[in-house]
Amino acid sequence: VSRNGCQTTSSRYADQNIVTSVEGRTTTFYVYPNPADERIMIEVIESNPVRAQLLDGKGASVETINLHQAQDRWKGEFDVTGISEGNYFIRLTSGKKSITHQVIIRK
């Protein structure tokens, strides 16, 4: 656990991030694979709908999707086959909560 109360576990294939929000609730999300070359999969365990934005290194929006509900989580994916290599960010938004996670696209 880091100083700000966040915990991150990473591997080549999946990143699991557990983030405590201001309200004291915990949101678990998965972003994989990272690095990615074709698709970036997203899963969020959250009760409210989730929107995902793929942002370039300067913070400009590349694509935005609304995740779909599947059992106890929200799921979605970005097709990154036509996107240049580099460092990107995924911003997940649900209600007033927002989480940003870095991803790498490699070809």
Keywords:
107 residues; mainly beta; six-stranded antiparallel β-sheet; four-stranded antiparallel β-sheet; 10 strands; 0% helix; 59% strand; globular; disordered N terminus
Cα-atom radius of gyration? 13 Å
Strand order of the largest sheet: 1-2-3-4-8-7
- SS summary, helix count: 0
Please report which band the strand proportion falls in: under 5%, 5-15%, 15-25%, 25-35%, 35-45% or over 45%: over 45%
Q: How would you sum up the major sheet?
A: 6 strands, antiparallel
- Which structural class best describes the helix and strand composition? mainly beta
User: Based on DSSP secondary structure assignment, what is the total number of beta strands?
Assistant: 10
- N→C terminal distance: 33 Å
- Which stretches are poorly predicted, pLDDT < 50 over at least 5 residues? 1-13, 18-22
Average per-residue pLDDT, rounded, comes to 83
Molecular shape: globular
Task: Report the helical percentage.
Answer: under 10%
| H/E topology pattern | EEEEEEEEEE
Textual characterization of the structure:
With 107 residues, the chain is mostly beta strands. It has no helices and ten strands. A six-stranded antiparallel sheet has the order 1-2-3-4-8-7, with no helix packed on it. The chain has a four-stranded antiparallel sheet with strand order 6-5-9-10, with no helix packed on it. It starts with 6 loop residues before the first strand and ends with a strand.
